[in-house]
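DM from R.C. (forwarded with permission)

"hey, sorry to bug you on a friday — could you get me a structure for this? deadline for the figure draft is monday and I only need the backbone to look sensible"
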Amino acid sequence: MTTWNLSGVKQHVLICNGGSCMRNGGEEVTQVIRGEITRLGLDNQVHTTRTRCNGRCDDACVVIVYPEGTWYQKVSPEMAKDIVTKHLSRGEVVDSSVSYTYSDEGFVPSSMAPEGIRKK
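My reply, with the result:
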């Protein structure tokens, strides 16, 4: 098992590879994000993790960027490229696909986010 040196990491990208996301391009999105990170020389600054279900299946395919706490919904391979070249590389959030952002009040849904159900 590999142990990554995370000392230079500034951002962590969680890429949903749960069932709904995989049926909506999750594998392609994962490959584009990782390829663009490498192409732009961001491997030491951005760490990616494939996750299972993140509980936002109506938003599939979901990509989450930390430490900002930005949740992207309905991510296509083209949008994945924008997330890397704009958000990860230049700090510009790709507004057209944001479903949730983090604020002092916690996660705040955008007007595009389906409401979902409350956790008990």
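R.C.: lifesaver. Residues 26-39 form the longest helix (14 residues).
me: no worries. The chain is about 30% helix and 25% strand.
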